[in-house]
Design goal:
With about 170 residues, the protein is of the alpha+beta class. The protein contains three helices and seven strands.
């Protein structure tokens, strides 16, 4: 979502109350495999969570994601999980940067394309304050989710772990 930095308004003239972004990409695997690459902690640990993941992503669960580049496990609350279609999570953020003290909400949407041979993956993160701190958090996470999509594609399609050694 863009805004006029001088007025704090969205392009349609309404007040800007939060920042959100969406990144997307296509992976040449069916939605079932792509969904599992996020839901299964062993799969997620193979290409994304550089220090491991614990717990299967299922609605109502709280799982742990750990990254070598941001040491310390992050609790991830799973708000919704519909196999092969979507996953919605919430994870903590800096209260100065997020509109919700509980953190930001991230939605993964998996859409079958090319008769189910490929999957469009869309990742949307929302609930960032329209402030400098919120923009910095959103931009940083936008980079992270874009990296995740690239790493997921390389791992699922070619067995290559792009993140290995990338942050250390």
């Amino acid at each position: 979502m863009s805004s006029d930095a001088n007025t704090g308004t969205a392009p349609d003239g309404t007040a800007l109350t939060e920042l959100e972004f969406t990144v997307f990409g296509f992976i040449s695997k069916p939605p079932e495999e792509v969904y599992e690459a996020v839901a299964d902690p062993a799969a997620l640990s193979s290409y994304f969570t550089t220090a491991g993941a614990e717990g299967r992503v299922e609605a109502g669960a709280t799982v742990q994601w750990d990254f070598a580049d941001f040491p310390g496990a992050f609790p991830v609350e799973v708000l919704d999980a519909v196999p092969h279609e979507r996953i919605v999570i919430r994870w903590a953020g800096d209260p100065a940067a997020t509109v919700d003290a509980r953190g930001t909400e991230v939605a993964f949407v998996f859409v079958a394309v090319d008769e189910g041979r490929r999957t469009e993956v869309r990742i949307t993160e929302r609930a960032w304050r329209p402030t400098s701190a919120g923009a910095a958090g959103a931009f940083g996470n936008c980079m992270g989710w874009t990296g995740m999509l690239a790493a997921m594609k390389a791992w699922l399609e070619h067995g290559i772990n792009l993140r290995e050694g990338f942050y250390r």
